[in-house]
Amino acid sequence: MAGSEILLRVRDYDLAATLDSGQVFRWQEYQGGWSGVIGKHRVWLTRVREGIRAETAAPVKDWDWLRGFLQTEIDWAAILETFPDDAPMRAAVAACHGLRVLRQDPWECLASFILSSTKQIVQIRQIISLLCERFGEPIALGAPASLPAASVSCAGTRRQDAGAPGNVPALFHLFPSAEKIAAATESELRACKMGFRAPHLLAAARQIAGGKFDLDRPRHLSLPEARAELMKLRGVGGKIADCVLLFAYGFDGAFPVDVWVERALRQLYFPGRRVTAKRLRHFAATHFGPHAGCAQQYLFHYRRTKMA
Fold first, then answer.
1. C-alpha to C-alpha distance for 130 and 97, rounded to whole angstroms
2. How confident is the model over 111-127, as pLDDT tens digits?
3. How many helices (H) and strands (E) does the chain have?
4. How many beta carbons lie within 10 A of that of residue 14, not counting itself?
5. Topology adopted by domain 1-73+140-151
6. Stated pTM of the model
7. Domain boundaries in the chain?
8. Residue 79: enclosing H or E segment and its boundaries?
C-alpha cells in the first residue's frame, strides 16, 4: 500500500538539532533525513529548501498530528524575541539556529523521561528501543517513495544492521501503551536494561491504566499545579515533571534543570562564583521570560554540543 507525502512550508527549522537535542529518543538519521515514529505513523522527514518534506509508510489524509508534533505553525521568531538579550543567550541562539521545541504525546514523553534518570542520551535511546521492541505493537514495513526499494531493510533485519549504508532504520514498533506496560512484570521491564527505573515506570503505568492518574488533567492546571500533579507519580521529580510539562503539555515557562543545564548556567552566567542550587533555580525561574523552557533547550543543546 502506497504511503503519503506532504511539504510543510517552514523557515529556519533545523531537523537535526531538534530531533537530536534530548527531547525525543526514537529518531535516527538516514540519507540526509530522519526516520521515526509519531503516534501510529512511521515517518521520514527531510529538510528541503521550501521547508520539511514528510513521507509516511501508510496513507495519510489529515496531517495535523505532524504539524502539532513539529510545531511548524508556531511563530518561532516571536518566541526568540522574548529571550533575554544577554551574551550567553545570544551565543546559544546563534550556535543552535533553527532549533525548535516539539510537542509530544504525554504518555510517551512521561515514560521516556522516567527512563532518562541519570542516563546519557545514547543509553536512553537503547532502553527505549528495547522497550518498544518487546512491548510495542509492530508497524507494517514500508518506505518512502523517494528511496529506491533496494535501500529498504527487510522486516527481519536486526537492529545492529539497520544503520548500514543505504538502509532505513528499523523502527517498526509503536511506543507501548500504559496498559501494556502495566500488565508487565518488573523483571520483564528490567530486561530492557532500565535498572532501578523499572519499578518507577511500572508504578506510573499502573496508576494511569487503573484510572488513578489522569494524563489530561495537567493541561488544565497552572504551571505550579501541573508540576505538583505530575510529581504524584513515582519516580517523577521536579526535573522530569518540567521536561514533560515543556515537551508534552506546552508549558513554555517550565525550565528543566539537569546536569548539563546547571553547568551551562554556572559557566555562562556565574563564572568563577559559588552559587547555590536554590539561587540557580530562582535565576532560571525569573531571568528567561515567558518562554523560559524554550530558552533552556538552547542552553542545553549549546552546552552539550558546542561547549563540552
1. 32
2. 999 999 888 899 999 99
3. 14, 5
4. 16
5. TATA-Binding Protein (3.30.310)
6. 0.89
7. 1-73+140-151, 77-97+254-305
8. helix 76-80
